[in-house]
Amino acid sequence: MRAAHVGVAMGNGSEVAKEAADMVLLDNNFSSIITAIECGRLVFANLKKVIIYLLPMTNLSEIVPSMFNVVLGLPIPLSTFLMLVINTITDVWASTMLIHEEPEHDILLHPPRDPQKESLVDVKFFVQAYGFIGVIETVTGHFMFFLSIYWQSGIGPSSIFLAFNRWSDGYLGFSKAQLAGFVSVAGSVHFMTLVIMQWGNMFAARTRTLSIVQQNPLWGPRCNPLLLVAIPISVAVALFVNEIPWFNEVFLTGRIPV
Question: Which domain of life does this protein belong to (predicted)?
Fold first, then answer.
């Protein structure tokens, strides 16, 4: 057993055999090894799904608005309060349910993972999270932010970039309160855009190697209907913080136009 690559002992074997073995089969069934390998791979895969779901939103989509505010002089597109709502409420349910994903049917067909070469996150992982999903969410969120301000006031992006301290009382003929109101509504639109886009990210993240058709979330042995509960929960939270007047006044959110 010590000479073997993986020494295996039975649960009803001698204590000497158990001490010498690398693996002890408590149920005395060799098929348990296959189940254990599948479970180990499933935990690793589901951790990757949760991370790829959370990274684009909790990092790039929140860092870039703050960076644009400092470097390019934009009014802050996403307030600290709305960032906290995303991180602590709207994304929590979906990320928790991704942990409970069933294994993809080809999970045992892949060769063994080399821990020296394939870690939990690698360069390709960050490229997918930041260079693909994150870029789509960030660009779309800012597009809706600019569109909302233009819809309300007629102020185009060229007048918003590099505004810095000029974004105050009298800028382009608007009062300070009016400008703040435009930003509050546009920030809420930006927030709602990111919340909706995370639904697509959620369904994309749940299958690392298969398509949504091959691993349907609604029916079949590997379905996960609890993921769909995340959608009404996130919508309810978003409407709650944006449509209640108290939140509008205290946390500077805005009612989103239809």
Answer: Eukaryota
* Predicted pLDDT of residue 196: 93
Res 224: pLDDT? 83
Least confident of 46-50, 168-172, 225-229: 225-229
Residues recorded for the chain: 258
CB atoms within 10 A of CB 101: 21
Q: Is the pLDDT of residue 214 over 90?
A: no
The full 3-state SS of the chain, as one line of letters, equals CCCCCCCEEECCCCHHHHHHCCEEECCCCCHHHHHHHHHHHHHHHHHHHHHHHHHHHHHHHHHHHHHHHHHCCCCCCCCHHHHHHHHHHHCHHHHHHHHCCCCCCCCCCCCCCCCCCCCCCCHHHHHHHHHHHHHHHHHHHHHHHHHHHHHHHCCCHHHHCCCHHHCCCCHHHCCHHHHHHHHHHHHHHHHHHHHHHHHHHHHHHCCCCCCCCCCCCCCCCCCCCHHHHHHHHHHHHHHHHHHCHHHHHHCCCCCCCC
